[in-house]
Amino acid sequence: MIIEIPENSDFSIHNIPFGIFSTQDRSPRIGVAVGEHILDLAAVAELDVFDFNTALLEKDTLNEFISLGKEITTRVRKKIQYWLKDDNSILAGNSDLFVKQSDAQMHMPVAIGDYTDFYSSLEHATNVGKMFRDPENALLPNWKHIPVGYHGRASSIIVSGQPIHRPKGQTMPIGMESPVFGPTKRLDFELEMGFICGKGTSLGDSVSTKEAEDYIFGLVLFNDWSARDIQKWEYVPLGPFLAKNFASSISPWVVTLEALEPFKVKGPKQEPEVLSYLQYEGEKNYDINLEVGIRPENSVETKVCFSNFKHMYWNMTQQLAHHTVNGCNINIGDMMASGTISGKEENSYGSMLELSWGGTKSIKLKGGSERKFIEDGDTVTMKGYAQKDDIRVGFGEVTTKVLPAKD
């Protein structure tokens, strides 16, 4: 192996995820995560080993690279895997092609034109329905017929490591007759995954479930921050607005759909049977272990959630098929988030809303403190990886610190 990759690294030779990095002496450019290092693809291109316009490897987003199409991007991945295994390859003895991840600054991997958030976990939707509606009829009548979603705000999606300020807005405290304004008292994370569109469509065209994987370049971890008290007051009748659009955080490395192929599994049985345009063949869910940790300021992290992407009731091919069935066009770099990923067990609930059951119980943290929702100074970290036999493909992490509300 050209470079040592630690055992159980998220960034094994089976992964080869793409991202945008910079260092003190390298401008933002495309790189690949390999173990604890980054392979600088712009530097590799100077060896004249690629058969496309390599100037795009010096761009500060992946969009133009993705636009080359999967035939080329997959070939680049396979070449890198081959070079890493060949002790006599073009990478051998070229240590300046690699930089340590610890010496690099990561940037937003793509320019996101549009962002849609789905609501596709049966367990999450059921939990929320039980809390806020009739427990006997937790799901709304449409939920098992369509992948419910809403259009979010692309401008406030940020990369891991960038802190956020507690949002402010209107809330209606219990017992009050008129709303009040101030910082949210119920700041929450939502454990999600996001996929990045790798191919565009024209207005009026639709993408079938059979074609959908051709339109998905790769996935990232996604923290859909939420202000629950603001959301409760504002969401009727049009759904989320200020409670969601203040920030969403993503992991910096885009793991390709091809790298996740070994981890495909069957999804939950869908009853009643879905309409024909939402039907699909084969395994379309992915066995990806997910976890969330909370670290208060000057304290240690406590893992509060262990979930898995395989729990999703509606899969990505169905989400994309539904999104485009009316002729809505998509563009390269568009982001689609899964919705909160909750499992059946209490420790697999993907939000504090569920873990604290609407604030009725506290989550005990190491160091003695307790949480019902996220407090100022807390750092929330999400991690994810897939493992099958000796093949491991991971996402690294998305980590965000919460700062007090701005004056």
Report on this structure.
The protein has 407 residues and is α+β, with helices and mostly antiparallel strands. Helix content is 14%, strand content 29%. The protein contains seven helices and 26 strands. It has helices spanning 41-45, 63-66, 70-85, 122-132, 228-234, 316-324, 352-355, and strands spanning 18-23, 26-34, 37-40, 98-100, 105-107, 115-118, 149-151, 157-159, 164-165, 168-171, 180-183, 187-188, 191-197, 216-223, 226-227, 248-250, 255-256, 264-265, 285-286, 289-295, 302-308, 335-337, 363-364, 370-371, 379-388, 391-403. The strands form seven sheets. Strands 6, 7, 8, 13, 14, 16, 17 and 22 form an eight-stranded mixed β-sheet that branches. A hairpin with a 6-residue loop joins strand 20 and strand 21 (302-308). The radius of gyration is 21 Å and the shape is globular. It starts with 17 loop residues before the first strand and ends with a strand.
What is the topological layout?
Blueprint: E1 18-23, E2 26-34, E3 37-40, H1 41-45, H2 63-66, H3 70-85, E4 98-100, E5 105-107, E6 115-118, H4 122-132, E7 149-151, E8 157-159, E9 164-165, E10 168-171, E11 180-183, E12 187-188, E13 191-197, E14 216-223, E15 226-227, H5 228-234, E16 248-250, E17 255-256, E18 264-265, E19 285-286, E20 289-295, E21 302-308, H6 316-324, E22 335-337, H7 352-355, E23 363-364, E24 370-371, E25 379-388, E26 391-403
Parallel strand pairs: 6-22, 8-16, 9-26
Antiparallel strand pairs: 1-2, 1-5, 2-3, 3-4, 6-7, 10-11, 12-15, 13-14, 13-22, 14-16, 14-17, 18-19, 20-21, 20-25, 23-24, 25-26
